[in-house]
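Researcher: Good morning. I'm working through a list of sequences from a screen, and I'd like to move beyond sequence-only analysis. For each chain I'm collecting a predicted structure so we can compare shapes side by side. This is the next one on the list. No need for commentary yet; just the structure.
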Amino acid sequence: MESKYNERKPIPRELPEMFRPPINRAMRTLDRSFFRRSVPLSAARIFKASDISKIRKELTKSNDVLSVPRLNAIRQVEGQDGSSLKALLLREDLKADDKSTWSPTIKELVEKGTVDLGPYDLTLDYDYWTYPEIIHSILPEDMDEIPQGFTQVGHVLHLNLRANYLPYKNLIAEILLDKNPTIRTVINKTEDVGSHSQFRTFPFELLAGENDLNVIQHEQDCEFRFDYARVYWNSRLETEHRRLVEKFRPSEMVCDVMAGVGPFAVPAGRKKIFVWANDLNPHGYEVMQDAVQRNKVADFVTPFNEDGRDFVRASGRRLLEAEPVTVTMHHKIRRDKKRKIEAGEEEQLPPPPTYTRPSFVDHYVMNLPADAIEFLDAFPGVYSGKDALFAPHTEQKLPMVHVYCFSGNSDNEVDDHIDICQRISERIGYKITVDDCVGGSGDQEVELAIHNVRLVSPKKQMFCASFRLPREVAFRKKSASDKCSIIEITIRTSLPVTHLSAPTPQDERPTPARHAPQARPPQGELEAASTLKLGADQNTHTLSLSEARLVIHKVLENKRRGGNKYEEPENLTKTLDYLDVFARFKDEENIKAVERLLNSHTELEMFERSQLGSLCCDNAEEAKSLIPSLQNKISDGDLQELLDELTKLRNFTE
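Model: Good morning. Structure tokens for this chain:
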């Protein structure tokens, strides 16, 4: 669930001064006993219990009853004879000993002898005041906002405090823990999501409560159980999860490429939608398996633990070749009713509904907003050679793709949409424009729709771009560079969980002698190469030499598993000899670390990143000489920092 304090709000001022908590700007350790105040008021004692309701209505109508948030105006008091009476607390400016402050209604009730007025000391303590009221009495006066932006996941409260609030982080956490009864743990994010993990988890510190992040989270009538430290979950996306799931129809086929623990997949399964749900995170995959069983959607939802690109590339063929699946939802009938039906005493029930899994994907969901657009390069050729199976030859449409992304929060949202379309076009190798929407002036078959999901920060907006996969993309014939006789995608399940993909032939030259001065090409040639143009291979996924070496060895291990004989072709042996000499990284963990480092530079093309991982240049000048397209993409300082990190990893290996 998302907290009711879902944004930074101004300091609360609704309480009159006399009802606010005492102030202590120097407090750094929470002292609950400090927050106590006695407020002098007046009360109208009611002599007959039967008159309480009537008198309360009269005094409320005359605005004489105390009206302060969260305070019950009816109190138990002692009468003059020691008996117990009910009393109504009166507005703070009405004084029992000053008749000039009495309203006509008060005077009339006193004259009738129905009530009498007397003093009443109202005691307020820590339990009365809210989190905003307490924290306002502690923070410096020059802080015109209070930290109220947090997300609740199960029993865990997740804060993302700004630097100026960090000196008060423990106070903030303890007060929030006190004021939210469903919370047992308060944590603060210390670095950005994904900064230390490709699985979008984040470093955090425990501020208050139990050190227990094993949560139970409910969403769309589904239950998820997971370790919040090991998987990604964002409660603020529940509305978006619901919006997209509502677009799917029973018996449709959905491929959820970055499924996480299943916030799209599991609710969709409950709607009798078939889902292949994939996630790279092994723990997320385990959680999703549990959620599928726990929510009884195993007939409809199948979890996968693969690289996103491989999953997309294999999905079309895999589904076409899969055995047909039909699910019959049998009626649940009580025994007595069943006997009556069999005896003819009641009418037969209608046939149970059946749901048949399609042989084609209807929707792809790609919910990894920081990187999902990068994975669109897996779609070209996904149905290569299968165009006769789709419209106009049949009634089958190509799938819709729903890809999440971030973009700048510009004043004109159209600019964000143009930016998103350009980025999509670059990855799929086909131009999509903002006019390609239903009713637009462009290609209406694309059915483009860009939905504004949420404002992440003042300069960062999250969007969902939905479009139908163009024929030119889906049926694109695979070039020779896409085909590799050494590695079959279908064997990839034997590979380690990483973003490695099948290698493609490319001109990976041996690294020049270390520290040798590099001759720069003529200026004209440098300018001509400053824009990376690879033709049909522009969006082909590429590997560094180290990654290619690792992939080939893993595939060979798989082929030889179980004592199977496999003779290496001569060209494969030569390739491995070459890679053994020139691959800079041999250790699998180091290769993964290099991949994570390079993939963090999303401003670079995959080809450029793989070249950097293969060449391991000493300095930025050398790198830009060998890879001219880097000239205007990355500063010398940032490039040198990247190269230094690669050197550290290489030295560690050596």
